[in-house]
Amino acid sequence: MDKMPKWADIVLIPLISLLLAAFFSALVILAIGENPIEALNLMIDGALMRSAGWGYTLYYATNFIFTGLAVSVAFHARLFNIGGEGQAMLGGLGVALVCLYIPWPHWSLSILGASVGAALFGALWALIPAYLQAKRGSHIVITTIMFNFIAAALLNYVLVEMLRPVGAMDPASAKFPDATHLPSFQDMFSTAETPLFRGAPANVTFFLSLAACLLVWVLIWKTRLGYEIRAFGQSETAAKYAGISPVRITVIAMLISGALAGMMSVNTTMGESERLILNSTEGAGFIGIAVALMGRNHPFGVLLAAVLFGFLYQGGAELALWTSIPRELIVVIQALVILFTGALDNMVRHPLEKLFIALRRRNA
Amino acid sequence: MTAPAIELKGISKAFGPVQANKDISISVQPGTIHGIIGENGAGKSTLMSILYGFYKADAGEIFIKGKKTLIPDSQAAIAAGIGMVFQHFKLVENFTVLENIILGAEDGAMLSTSLSNARRELKHLAEEYGLNVDPDAVIENLSVGHQQRVEILKALYRKAEILILDEPTGVLTPAEADQLFRILDRLRAEGKTIILITHKLREIMEYTNTVSVMRRGQMTATVKTEETSPEHLAELMVGRKVLLRVDKAPAEPGATVLDIKGLRVVDDKGVERVKGIDLAVRAGEIVGIAGVAGNGQSELLEVLGGFAEGTGTILMNGSEIPLSGHGADGQTRRAVGISHVPEDRQREGLIMEFSAWENTVFGYHHAPEIQNGLLMDNKGIFAEAEAKMERFDVRPPDPKLAAKNFSGGNQQKIVLAREIERNPDLLLIGQPTRGVDIGAIEFIHQQIVNLRDQGKAILLVSVELDEIMSLSDRIVVMFDGHITGERDPGQTNEKELGLLMAGITDTSTVAGNGNTTPPEQEVHANG
């Protein structure tokens, strides 16, 4: 018998955790002498009340959906992929190569090509830690973290020494050809009479991320591979008994995870900057961990959590713009959200479970 | 009459909607052995955990020597003179006996005084109760029986007057169990009070003064042992009459299905666990492997099931199956007609977090009939799971429930339904009734016999000697990775098997020609 109804588990607990995080964030804002209510208004106004705000929120959310899904898929196999950041960086390289060196006739084809490139490079970057874990027992948390550093250094080298156009001063590739320009929300939804999403970076990749959610859901819950990944994640001994190869599942789960993380770069590198730059990932690989944690490793939960973190990112930028609240404080607020929704999950869960049990007994 | 050593009044404890203990009252006189018997999940362990301060009772009172006592934690339990010997020992494997004994009861910051005090005390206890253990031996080098003695010594060192033993003989050879009961006898004679939790009716009948029966969280009866019988106790445990013996016709063995030649298995630590055994199982017979846990039976099953590697030759229906490398996996084994009910259903046979219906195809999830293009045919699997659960009387019959929410017996039925209904040529079955209640044991044994009668080969491994004796058509005994003997169940007895299980192959002194143990001694129930 489950201790409480499913809706409480899925909706109530994150909601309460979120409120707690908001409360403590308010205390922090009070402590630096600002008005928390005003700050919240500002965040909501800047991130959700105008179409341009949404354009930014969903742009960030797209990144977080991909990296969140990446962490989730690996976690279903009980593999903690901390390397989303590095895999996304390499994904960016894949996107850049595809966009720069293949003459694309139309964006719709180039996005497919870029996705394949991003997924391939991300997956390959995850393959080495996966192999080391499966065959050599090197802990995947350690190796994926190390690979983030290697990825950053590698990208630096490639940009400075290889992709930088002659005479350019900044470590970035040449601008991608126009045929690879992805339609932004502004391109798609704005009309002359009603301008929408003006200047916002959200683009067609958002829909790609929604499709990824659906595909991951099908993969995990409806396919044989998903069944094996989940079984392996729950019990390695049982998986062995059933004839599920630990090596195979470890490698496949990490390949899928790396591919998803890499695909984030379609949004940033192709959709926004339209050239490969250093640090295009901006830590989204790590936010993915929090997103997966909060989204309970379920694609739909990841989607909601990603939108929430997109809101925090965009709202935070607004705060920094209009108040004396430093941008770093947003990191504090995000950290509080992660702390309460992830790490302190049981703090909310246990009292709530007791409450539901008491209620049930009274009704019985 | 003196005040009872320990008395419980109206103890109740609920876990969520489950009432684990309901208004339990018992009273145990000093200097007696009191047995507590009941099916799995009857609430015995919960009750003892309350006594030892692991759980707090929702209601009720505990009296020690007539004095009301609160036991909020295990420190308080120790202070009240209660000692506990758990089924799974709580010893630090790489500490010596002495270090383990003072652990948590050190006299001060420096160990040397504690150690010398303990050494003196230990010598004294050894003389008084016949509890001989080398104080400087490292735990991991001791036999299971001696490790258990260390647990008892730990309790006595802490001045325990009341000793609770949870399933103490589960891991012992018959000889070790005898020694344990001799020690318990001495302790009883010295005025200690012993509470013995067991599912073995024979132990209750032979060694206890009084016995309490628990069923579904309630104490259904407390009786003097001399005034009861195993049948009566079994009935009290289950709530209905139980068939305690397996009903089966003589076997009609056919062609050899499984032929093992010179099998050796080395475990992860490099220890050789199976040391070259030859064994054949024919169609239509049940071969039972008897032995104390840890003598290579598990490794044998694992190699046959494809999730451990070995060397040697194994023929399945005449063709060799790979024992290592490519093809030595569960999928390939299933493909050649080997089904496997593993020893540890919770860690191996089931994914506890998966729902029952998902578990009904575990290991067979590659079967073509449950695929629907690229996806799994979840609707079909669900419908079939519903039917399977109906046929195997799994309760509650709800395929959506996670495996962890079923009782041990019903979990086992889910595994059995999955493995038996695949209609294998060979069924490997390890500990079929471990942690399974009496009512379900009857059903599970019947299913195994039915499969045999359909002409299937069955290899059974169990540490329950009674189970081996009543189910098997041939008994093979393993000790230290070797086969020490093969007997006809009709031509042997427990003493002889016990000697073989201890590695003594000269059994002429006890060899029986027929069943020398009276029928009621074949009674057993897992709890």
From TrEMBL, chain A:
Which PANTHER family does the UniProt entry name for this protein?
A: ABC TRANSPORTER, PERMEASE PROTEIN (PTHR47089), GUANOSINE ABC TRANSPORTER PERMEASE PROTEIN NUPP (PTHR47089:SF1)
The name this protein carries in UniProt is: Ribose ABC transporter permease protein
Q: Which residues cross the membrane?
A: 12-33, 53-75, 87-104, 110-128, 140-160, 200-220, 241-264, 302-323, 329-348
What is the species of this protein?
Shimia marina
Q: Does the keyword Lyase apply?
A: no
What are the protein's UniProt keywords? Cell membrane, Membrane, Transmembrane, Transmembrane helix
> InterPro entries under this entry?
ABC_transp_permease
Q: Where in the cell is it found?
A: Cell membrane
Q: Does the keyword Transmembrane helix apply?
A: yes
* GO cellular component labels: plasma membrane
In alphabetical order, the GO MF annotations are: transmembrane transporter activity
Residues annotated as coiled-coil are none
The record gives the membrane topology as: Multi-pass membrane protein
TrEMBL record, chain B:
Keyword Zinc listed? The answer is no
Tell me where it resides.
Answer: Cell membrane
EC number, UniProt record: 3.6.3.17
Major subcellular location class: membrane
Signal sequence coordinates:
none
Do the record's keywords include Hydrolase?
yes
Q: Known SMART domains for this protein?
A: AAA (SM00382)
Looking up Pfam families in the UniProt record yields:
ABC_tran
What would be an example GO MF term here? ATP binding
Q: Where is the ABC transporter domain?
A: 6-241, 258-505
Read off the SUPFAM superfamilies from this record: P-loop containing nucleoside triphosphate hydrolases (SSF52540)
Q: Which family does it belong to?
A: Belongs to the ABC transporter superfamily.
Q: What is this protein called?
A: Ribose import ATP-binding protein RbsA
Origin organism is Shimia marina
What are the top taxonomic ranks of the organism? Bacteria, Pseudomonadati, Pseudomonadota, Alphaproteobacteria, Rhodobacterales
